[in-house]
Structure prediction request, 63 residues.
Amino acid sequence: MEKPRVKCEIRDGIAEVMLARGDKLNALDRAMFSAIDGVLDQLRQHNGLRAVILHGEGRAFCA
Prediction:
């Protein structure tokens, strides 16, 4: 089973979105773009969302 490419947690109207491919410096590929798109769809449906924090797992944001 493949681990998720993007993780999302929403608390108190703030979404924390993390690119979860730290072993590859969070490099973008088709699966990563698809996962980001899925999270964005999820966030659009969330009423009361005030902010989104986007960061990468590990030592690099994105390669």
Q: What stands out?
A: The CA atoms of residues 13 and 49 lie 4 Å apart.
